[in-house]
Design goal:
This protein is α/β, with parallel strands linked by helices. It is globular and about 45 Å long. Strand 6 and strand 7 form a beta hairpin. The chain starts with a helix and ends with a strand. It has three helices and eight strands. The mean pLDDT is 83. The strands form two sheets. Strands 1-2-3-4 form a four-stranded mixed beta sheet.
Length: 143
């Protein structure tokens, strides 16, 4: 039963990735992280839709990997792994700490170096830049 649930949920993640949609929120994915995730391991293959844990953070796999190079950890390969944050609501009172290679979503608040930013337009994919570098394009500085 757990295997079937995992396969069904993974198929939903893959569908979202292929459609460029955000039907399945990061919170929904992370609420089921125990069911879905495995620790990232060098040498292990990861399929699109896999959720891996690395360095205390969860990552969604957006491109398949055949044989993970030990130097290509999820935090360093944004073309393959996108960080997901569920511990922050993205509200003004509970902004999401921005990290490189995140996908940003319209209407959510992010923090960087003590400053608060509002995302004014979803990026649609992970981007290497932080909010301070995207003011006027994807963000407005709030404080």
């Amino acid at each position: 039963m757990a295997q079937q649930a995992r396969a069904t949920f993974r198929a939903m993640i893959v569908s979202d990735i292929e459609a460029g949609a955000e039907t399945l929120t990061a919170n929904a994915i992370l609420d089921n992280a125990d069911l879905l995730s495995a620790p990232w391991q060098p040498g292990a293959a990861n399929a699109v839709g896999d959720i891996v844990e690395y360095g205390g953070r969860y990552y969604k796999t957006i491109q398949p990997t055949g044989n993970a190079d030990p130097n290509h950890t999820p935090d360093l390969v944004p073309a393959v792994f996108v960080p997901i944050d569920r511990t922050h609501a993205g509200t003004r009172e509970d902004p999401i700490p921005a990290v490189g290679n995140m996908e940003y979503f319209e209407g959510r608040y992010y923090t960087e170096a003590g400053a608060l930013y509002l995302c004014t337009r979803s990026t649609g994919q992970s981007v290497a830049h932080l909010p301070s570098q995207l003011v006027g394009v994807y963000f407005e500085k709030v404080e």
